[in-house]
Every structure is written in C-alpha cells, then in structure tokens.
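Before relying on records like the one below, remember that each one covers exactly one chain. Contacts with other chains, cofactors or solvent are not represented anywhere in the record.
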Amino acid sequence: MDNNNYYNYNPYTNPENGFGDTNGAETQAAAQGPSKPPRKKGFGVTLAKTIAIALVFGLVVGSAGLGVIYFGGDALGILADAEDDKDMDKDADDDTTAGSLNSETVKNPIQQTDTSDESIVAIMDVSDLVENAMPCIVAITNESETVIQGMWGQNYVQESESCGTGFLVEQDNEYIYIATNNHVVDGAKTLTVQFCDNAVVEAEIKGQVASKDLAVIQVAIADIPSETLSEIRLATLGDSTELKVGEGAIAIGNALGYGQSVTTGVVSALGRSVTVTDSSTGTTILNKNLIQTDAAINPGNSGGALFNVQGEVIGINSVKYADTDVEGIGYAIPISDAMIVIEKLIKGEEIDTEKAGYLGIQGVDSNYGVYIYKVYSNSAAEKAGLQAGDIITEFDGNKISSMSQLKELLTYYIAGEEVELGILQAQGNEYVEKEITVVLGDASSIEQ
C-alpha cells in the first residue's frame, strides 16, 4: 500500500493530487521557485540613523509610529494638546451610532459590537506551549510493501516508506500507547517512532479502526533508553465538546517527514463532515463531526495533535483540503470522540462498527442537550426508563449538545454495551438531574 497517496479529497473535482503523508514534498519545493538573494547590509543601519536624527530635531510626524509620537509630544510640550484632541474625538464618537446616525433619530437602534474584551489576544508567541508539548509528540515511519502490476500483467512487490505523527496518551507497566490515524500505520511491515530526543524505537500496532481513521500503536518500555524515558511526557487531553469557533489552535506534526514543526491558527468551524477516498483501495470513508482549522495541516501531520492555547490536545489532525483554489482548510478528529475508540483499542476490545448500538429515541436539539420527543417501544431507551420530555445532557461522560453529536457517539458503541446517561427529567414543575444506565440495543429490536 502506498500511504503517500492515501487521500484524494476534493469536493469539486477530486483530482489525483492527494495528500498522503509525504506526497508532494518535491512539488511544493519546486513551486517555491529560486531562492531570493540575500538582502544587502546597511539599509537597516542607515534607516535607524535617519530616524534617530529626526527624533533629535523633533521632525518626526505622526505616521512614524506611536512610540515616536509620544517622544516628540512629550519633548516639545504638546502632549496636552494631543490629549485634548483625543477627548474631542471621543465626545464626537459618543454622539453617533453605526452608520453615523444620531441614536435619537433611530427607532430601536442596533448596538455596536463590543471590542472592550481584554481576553481577546492574537496568537503570536506559543514557544512555551510548544516546549511543554513537544515531549508528547512522536514521528512515525511506516515501511510497507505494495503489490504493483506491470504493463505486461506481471505482479511484483515494491517497498515503500511513508511518515506521519502520533502522540503519547497512556502507559502501563509494559507499554507506552500512542494515538494516531489509521492511514498512517495501515499496511505496515515495520513501524518505528522517533521521540523528542531523536531516539528511534520499533513499535507495533495495538489496534485500528479504518472507518474512524484511528489507530493505537505501542512501544515496549524496555526498548526505550532510560534518558529518553526521562524526557518524554504523556499528552494532556482537553474537552473538544467545549470548543468555540475562533479559539486559538496549534498543530504539531512531522510535516513532509522533515521533523516536527508548528503551525498556528484558529478553530474555523465545528461539526464538519468530510468524505475521503483511499487511493490504494478505493474505499470511501465519511468522517463526521470534524474540527475545521486554518492551522496548516500538511502531509506528514496526519495523526498529530491539535492543541488549544492551554496546551491541551483537542483533536487529531487527519485531513487537509486539496484544491488549488483553497488554502487554510484542514480537519481534525475531536479528541473527545477519538478517545472513546482509543481507550477501547488500548484495552484490546473489538470495535465492530457494523453492529453499532441503538438507543431508540427521536430527539431535537435544545439549550441543555437533546430533548426526547419519542421513545420507541422495546428499545434500550424504554427499558432504561427514558421518557418523552426527558433531556439527555451526557452520554458516557461526554457532554451532549446536539442530536447529531449523540448519533455520532453511538457509532463508537456496539449493541450490548452499557453506557451511563446524564438526563434532566421532569418532576412536577421542575427538571431534576438523574443518572441512568442503558444497555444499548440493535436496530432489529426496535418496534416502530
């Protein structure tokens, strides 16, 4: 299998310019063109001298910058006049609303946006976050074999190598477990991981779920050098159900196989659905409830961590948009969804997505969760005591905000599994919080 061409995702034309984990390195490098000649020295020094001379003679005008304005005003004794001008401008602003209309002349005037929130800051320096997070990130190398058919019909085996990323999520007395994408490790003949101190150790697949594009690999602790063990760290996991559009996002991964690199951006959108195709097998996979981000997700970033500004993992970088007309669109699997599968794989549990568990309700979104307006007869929900009018607020520890989210979570569970639900149930004139245990059923048991 050629992991370098795993994805060909384009909702317009789907050209064969996919984004496997190392594919495109040469193309991208060539597209940059020849390097620019080094800038001649001396300009910066000359410019600095010029500004310094201007400051001495008090000739710098307002366009030179805020710091220069303050210096000139204070030195020449005109700062008070500037403050008076600002007060006059402020008074003028206070008398107007958006559109320069006097508020007294507009019936039901629309308020302007509030820009006074001091918590709104740009992501400029994330070096401390990266320094703390890098010990949980690993580069993954997948050496695989692919059967190639020659032009005369003969078959031969071709060895290939691809790269990706993973991050440390758990350990026991024998192994350290690493979360990644399934397409990063699928078909591997041998796997190696490189830790933050450049130590390289062999790994093996613990479990994988192709339909969710998730996998866990394990590394024997006995194989890891003691100095490396003292350097590496387990990732701190966040809560992706609490994400808001516009929050800062930082992606770390083995881009193009060159080693770990960092990109920054924001959470661009939530709840995205993306269909991708494995170019080797032709298998189509629908990924739901993805995080969209403009933090660059390049080939080799697959399986890496998407962090929030607190340094918590909020997603697993998985897909990038491949189209010449589009940039700044990448996708990550929400960590709260992914960990349901990852924990099962670490425990060695089988995940049969063809036997997804059923709850047996019809519901709609509400301010508190999912409002149930119908419970099917003989369903798992009815047997557990759920009633029309109840509101589901949590599903097996995950906060529920929509019906689509609840449906997506159910795909990670099979019939017969027990889950804990948090609900609000009407008692008299008020709702009371309750916890109930539900044994999930299957579709065949439900009576419509």
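The domain at 3-14+236-337 is CATH 2.40.10.10 (Thrombin, subunit H).
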